[in-house]
Amino acid sequence: MTTTMQWLFVAALAGLPLVMHDQYFFHVLIMMGIFTIGAMSLNLLLGYTGQLSLGHVAFFGIGAYTSALVSLGFDIQITETYTFVLAPKPAWFSLICSVTLAGLCGWFIGKLSFRVRGAYFVIVTISFAEVVRLVALNWVDLTEGPMALNNIPPLATALPGFDSGPLQRKIVNYYIVLGVAVFSFLVIKRIIQSRLGRAMVALRENEALAKSVGIDVTRYLVLAAIASAAIAGAAGGLYAHYVRIVDPDVFLFIYTVTMVIMVVSGGKGTLAGPVVGGVIFGLLPEFLRGHTVPEVQWMIYGALMILIVYFLPQGIVPAVNKWWTAYRSKRDQVVATNVSLGRNPQEQEG
């Protein structure tokens, strides 16, 4: 996908509120955008370093809980005589805190787990996600446990003139999610095109060869984990301020599976892949909901995933790029042949 096409796509999304006025439609787009941001963050690990993190939802949940707690305020009893108290902070500051803490957790889990590879790395990430979920479930004094944190301040309240009705609030949240998604995409693009990105791809392709030319494997993998976790934390913070209620279900494994499906189906290791996968698998369940019963919906959902993996093993975006390159090559060859024969390239063979 060229830069021009990318900006045209963003412009089309930005113009949707001018022609659409359905609250539920915007709700679907907002949730799709949040999980697409999560998928983009996962692609930074899975697609560019080749490391499968099945506990990626932990960073999403950490971001959600951090943003919720900072915006609501909390207190923690450190000793019998001292209690740490944090007064409620603005929603935007809370979102920044969610990105920061998720990034720090990414650094910690990267330092801990990138000394192992393969199935061991997967086990470490899953275990980390389960530990964080249990903490959220059982630390009732801080997280309210299964009773959930509610009445989380929305991000849209600070903008005058847009909080007069449900549709206006949806539109403001839509633009906030779109803005964060575009910013995250640009950050990931900058990383991939930098020395860090080239080192990540080298590690994915041939780790032994990368080591032999002086690439510090653990260092670059940890940096990728920090960036990936921070972006996932931003997605979690957006989720908390949009839904305005957070409970331990935010750590459900199905959320990681959803992100993996978006990355793999769209094309891992490509910038546009998670976006394409996010659009397809974010909108498909809502489209099927109005036409079939739930059982058939999941059958179609699974069948489509199997077909994509079988016929397009590298994903949709690489397949489209391959077809487009072959088409242009064939067209250029025909034009060159016509020129060499002295024909007008615009003529139609009759």
TrEMBL record:
It is found in: Cell membrane. The chain crosses the membrane at residues 24-45, 57-78, 90-109, 121-140, 171-188, 220-239, 245-264, 271-288, 300-321. One of its GO terms (molecular function) is branched-chain amino acid transmembrane transporter activity. InterPro entries: ABC_transp_permease (IPR001851), LivM-like (IPR043428). Signal peptide: none annotated. Keywords: Cell membrane, Membrane, Transmembrane, Transmembrane helix. The keyword Cell membrane applies. It is a multi-pass membrane protein. It comes from the Bacteria. The keyword Hydrolase does not apply. One of its GO terms (cellular component) is plasma membrane. PANTHER family: HIGH-AFFINITY BRANCHED-CHAIN AMINO ACID TRANSPORT SYSTEM PERMEASE (PTHR30482), HIGH-AFFINITY BRANCHED-CHAIN AMINO ACID TRANSPORT SYSTEM PERMEASE PROTEIN LIVM (PTHR30482:SF20). This is Branched-chain amino acid ABC transporter permease.
